[in-house]
Amino acid sequence: MTSSQPSSPQPSVPAPDLATIWSSARRLHPIYAEMAREFVVDIPGCSDLEAHVDTPGRESVEQAQQWLNAMDDKIQVHQLRQFLQTSSLVDADGLIALLTHFLGKTPRSDSGRDKIDFLMVQYFSQGAPSELDDSNADVSYVAQALEPILGKVELKTPVWLNALDRVLDSARRCRSLDELLHGGVLEQGRKAKAQAGDLYYLPIALIAFTRFGYLMRRAFFRLMLADLNNILDGLTELEEKGVETIDCRRAQFSDKEPIIRLRMICQSWKVMFQAEYSSGQPLRMLVDLRASVDGALGRGSAAKGGGSAAPAPRAAAAAAGAGTGAAKPSVSPTPKAAAPKPPAAVASKPPAPIAPAPKAAAPQKTAPQPTAKPKAKFAVANADAPEFEISGAQEWNPDADSQAGQKK
Predict the structure, then answer these.
(1) 257, 274, 258, 252: which is closest to 351 by C-alpha?
(2) Could you give the angle at the alpha carbon of 280 between the alpha carbons of 276 and 283, nearest 5°?
(3) Which of the four pLDDT bands, split at 50, 70 and 90, describes residue 267?
């Protein structure tokens, strides 16, 4: 029996606000154009956007949207992260424009979600005061800082988001960067984000994941600096014992790497990590260098051997860069915890430009020998250098390298 009931009227769909769409596209165009140049993205430009047309027709607006979508498909999250960490082109308003763009995109994708995840953390971090203590960065504080993006949000956290606090507790218990990167903690965070599905885009979930990413970033930064300090302490101890070189093949350096050279490399790495973090390679070198120093001191499993891998070009380039005047780390005390009032809105200030990593150069046969041995160590201070996003870092297999390094 066929139904004779009339079909229900379809709700009217409001016509798109072409002026709003065009205004957003014009705001994003210089950012995307610069990324296209930096990452050599071969996509034909949008003529009306390049011509700064004030009142385009519908066809021009559609072409602008297509161009932005094509750029989104080409630009990966690690490239977006690198661009924002090395460019002063994007201020707080630019981050809001990018977030509005990605939050409004359909259909949703894992790549788009990861970009939103990074941008939310970047926006919050850029406006957070340097003296903000982890205990004060609660959900209500983060929610107030994100009001320019999400508006007022009811702070009723679903039970399933409690998993993020458990991951943060695991991260706080880590005692080394190696433990954080390869102890399963990061995988737990990624799993929580992936399992959220479309619930990730709920305002309260965006707030919770922003807080999570910010605190994980700080945990990573503290452990990275702690590893550098441990390496410097170990090098000093070796020097006091009269040791001048150690076997650092597992860290892709030589089997007789001068300690004074390693000290200079560690000092330069604070800059290098900021520019090359997305590759994951410098992190492996840092973890393996600490293991090499521990091995030379007869501590831990690293004492079994330094490995047999030949120095990689990137390691040689890092050493060359360190020997030719890399930026010195600043020495600043850890700021005491304070309880600042949540900001009404994130301050609109451009991120401080970060010095690029040293360019690759042919390995030098001998490194310059300074007259005085530097003793600088690094302290955790938010204002000292931008912290790092770790959720999208490329993975590497430390076991494979360690096993290969221990073969005779």
Answers:
(1) 274
(2) 90
(3) confident
Where do we find the tokens 């959900």?
Answer: 139
* Token pair listed for 16: 């798109």
Residue found by looking up tokens 């990624």 in the block: 190
Nearest to 126, CA basis, from 102, 99, 163? 99
Nearest to 155 by CA among 342, 314, 301: 342
Q: How far apart are CA 142 and CA 124, in angstroms?
A: 7
Sign of CA dihedral 339, 343, 346, 351: negative
Q: Is the pLDDT of residue 162 over 80?
A: yes
Task: Give yes or no for residue 384 having a pLDDT over 50.
Answer: no
pLDDT value of residue 343: 47
Query: How many residues would you count in the chain?
Result: 408
Query: 46 and 82 in contact (C-beta within 8 Å)?
Result: no
* H or E element that contains 96: helix 92-103
Q: Is 329 exposed, middle or buried (0-12, 13-18, 19+ CB in 10 A)?
A: buried
**Whole-number pLDDT of residue 82:** 86
CA dihedral 169, 170, 172, 173 (to 10 degrees): 120
What is the rounded distance in angstroms from the CA atom of residue 297 to the CA atom of residue 187? 32
Query: Does residue 230 register a pLDDT over 60?
Result: yes
The residue assigned the tokens 């452990």 is: 223
Instruction: At 232, list the tokens.
Output: 């410097």
Tell me how far CA of residue 42 lies from CA of 33, 63, 70, 73, 228, in angstroms: 11, 16, 10, 12, 40
> For residues 294 and 300, what is the distance between their CA atoms, to the nearest angstrom?
7
Give the Cα separation of 210 and 138 in Å (integer). 11
Per the listing, tokens 């679903």 go with: 158
- Please report which confidence band the pLDDT of residue 354 belongs to, taking 50, 70 and 90 as the band edges: very low
Q: What is the pLDDT of residue 347?
A: 40
* Gyration radius of the chain over CA positions: 24
Q: In this structure, are residues 401 and 288 in contact, taking their beta carbons and an 8 Å threshold?
A: yes
pLDDT tens digit sequence for 32-82: 999 999 999 988 988 899 998 888 888 999 999 999 999 999 999 999 988
| CA-to-CA dists, residue 393 to 82, 151, 222, 278, angstroms | 11, 30, 17, 5
